[in-house]
Amino acid sequence: MASEVLIEHGESRLARRVRHNRYKIALAIAVIEGILVLVGAIPWWLVVLLALGALAGYVGWGREHKSADVRLVTWTAAVSQLVVVLVPILAGAVVVLAAVAVVAVAALALAALLLDRR
């Protein structure tokens, strides 16, 4: 068997499909929200509050809920919101790395010009 599918008791076909793709769903939500945060459509502090709320909802209510659907939705919401919190930090790291790369190229070009003996 190429892939084994774990079937939880009372789980619908849709819930099984969503559970199987929950990482992709959480990442897609995070990408869309991350773009909105980077362009300024959603303030970052609101994203932090939403992440705290989603995490609290999962830990306090969803993780031990008897419904697999509630556990799945709260987990997906918590993961996607926590990834969105990281987006501005990762964007800042990319900007710093780009600046370091530009300075390194400029330093190498300057060294090449100064060492040119013609």
User: Globular, elongated, flat, extended or rod-shaped: what is the shape?
Assistant: elongated
Mean pLDDT rating:
89
Element-level helix/strand string: HHHH
Compute the separation of the termini in Å. Answer: 69 Å
Poorly predicted parts: none
Tally of DSSP β-strands: 0
Strand content: under 5%
Q: Biggest β-sheet, characterized?
A: none
Helix content: over 70%
Question: Nearest-angstrom radius of gyration?
Answer: 22 Å
Tally of DSSP helical segments = 4
Q: What structural class results from the helix and strand content? A: mainly alpha
Q: Topology of this protein?
A:
Blueprint: H1 13-20, H2 22-38, H3 44-62, H4 68-115
Report on the structure:
There is one protein chain. Helices cover 78% and strands 0% of the residues. The chain has four helices and no strands. It has helices spanning 13-20, 22-38, 44-62, 68-115. It has a domain at 13-86. The longest helix has 48 residues, at 68-115. It starts with 12 loop residues before the first helix and ends with a helix. It is elongated and about 80 Å long. With 118 residues, the protein is mainly alpha-helical.
Summarize the structure.
The chain is mainly alpha-helical. The protein has a domain at about 15-85. The chain is built from four helices and no strands.
Question: What keyword list fits this structure?
Answer:
elongated; mainly alpha; 4 helices; 118 residues; 78% helix
